[in-house]
């Protein structure tokens, strides 16, 4: 594999990664004075594009394997349940790279789980990005309230209260439009709590 030539994979990766950076981010990087600071800065940003710019390349002979992907996802689910966030993230990343594009539902469910892990790792923007991807892949409508509520709470943590209110409104919408499995009394209480929370955030 070529590394430094114009046609090398890592050269192409670097160019694609560079195009994802804003002018402000480039200026911030340029202001750093040590290699340690530069590495930490890029290492944080790379998660934003981990899906679009995977460093792992599968050979045509191997292709994407659903069976292997689901195995990695199961391992990630176990790690998630045990609170081993770094292990879970590694497993979910591997699973995502292996999942065939046509397995949209599996991708959506995987991204939901990875979003939870990223949230636990306080990678808020990356968690939000995975939620949006999960929705884009056709996350089950009757479960969308969970994703929108997570988005709302992340925006609230980021003090983006306008976006938080919009997401809480979406949460209420999906709870009202789709069966949740909650008893009527619990659903009514949930909706009331969300409306009160929305008012608190808004005002």
Mind explaining what this structure looks like?
The protein has ten helices and no strands. It has 203 residues and is mostly helical. Among the domains are: 75 residues, Serine Threonine Protein Phosphatase 5, Tetratricopeptide repeat (Alpha Horseshoe), CATH 1.25.40; 61 residues, Methane Monooxygenase Hydroxylase, Chain G, domain 1 (Up-down Bundle), CATH 1.20.58. Helix 6 runs antiparallel to helix 7 and helix 8 packs antiparallel against helix 9. The longest helix has 19 residues. The protein starts with 8 loop residues before the first helix and ends with a helix.
- CATH homologous superfamily placement of the domain at 65-139: Tetratricopeptide repeat domain
Give the ordered list of helices and strands: HHHHHHHHHH
How many strands? 0
Helix/strand structural class: mainly alpha
Q: What fraction of the residues are assigned to beta strands by DSSP?
A: under 5%
Per CATH, the class of the domain at 65-139 reads Mainly Alpha
CATH architecture of the domain at 65-139: Alpha Horseshoe
Q: Overall pLDDT, averaged?
A: 83
Low-confidence stretches: 1-5, 55-63
The value of Rg in angstroms is 20 Å
**Largest sheet composition:** none
The CA-CA distance between the termini, in Å, is 57 Å
Tally of helical runs: 10
Helix content: 55-70%
CATH topology of the domain at 65-139: Serine Threonine Protein Phosphatase 5, Tetratricopeptide repeat
Shape: globular
